[in-house]
Design a protein that fits this description.
By secondary structure, this protein is of the alpha+beta class. 16% of the residues lie in helices and 43% in strands. The protein is built from one helix and twelve strands.
């Protein structure tokens, strides 16, 4: 399967590992095409089968601490799933950084450290808080510094609920 980008380039050989190929495609085209195509590509290549209504999900209190250019930026938020089915955070798209990662805080040996996870579970009929010291999403190697009072948008993609646009406020630690 080959996909032609808006500028005429072709991204080919999407087969063995569609998630990795989707990520590779998004990385290649994000600068040129922006957040909308990033989301469309992820949904197209990961099987956007019968997505639930994303308005069911309430995402609130999204915030991030200030950070310098090139650093990793944690994004925290509260996600309410009023539905009857569990869901997961599948990915995050933002123009603030080139790469994103789902993480949890590991307290294994001594000081806490960040550890990448495949997904963040969102339980049915429950509220999940992504917070310091727990699970969160990280924007890696941010493109520009962010300071208190700034805001930026992210699209958080859930397996069942699809994409939800989130406005993130930059502020000091709660």
């Amino acid at each position: 399967m080959a996909i032609e980008m808006m500028n005429g380039e072709t991204f080919a050989s999407i087969s063995a590992h569609p998630i990795e190929k989707a990520r590779e495609f998004v990385r290649a085209g994000r600068k040129r095409l922006g957040r909308a195509s990033c989301l469309m590509t992820i949904l197209a290549l990961t099987g956007s089968q019968a997505l639930a209504d994303p308005t069911m999900f309430a995402v609130s209190d999204a915030w991030s601490p200030p950070a310098e250019k090139g650093s990793d930026l944690p994004v925290y938020m509260t996600v309410t799933n009023p539905g009857e089915a569990d869901d997961i955070v599948r990915s995050l798209c933002s123009t603030v950084a080139h790469f994103t990662e789902k993480r949890t805080t590991d307290y294994g040996e001594g000081a806490p450290s960040a550890r990448e996870v495949k997904s963040i579970p969102i339980k049915a009929s429950d509220t999940t808080v992504l917070k310091p010291g727990g699970s969160y999403v990280a924007l890696l190697k941010i493109i520009n510094p962010v300071k208190s009072g700034d805001t930026f948008d992210c699209d958080i993609v859930f397996r069942r609920a699809g994409s939800v646009n989130v406005r993130v406020k930059v502020q000091g630690l709660h």
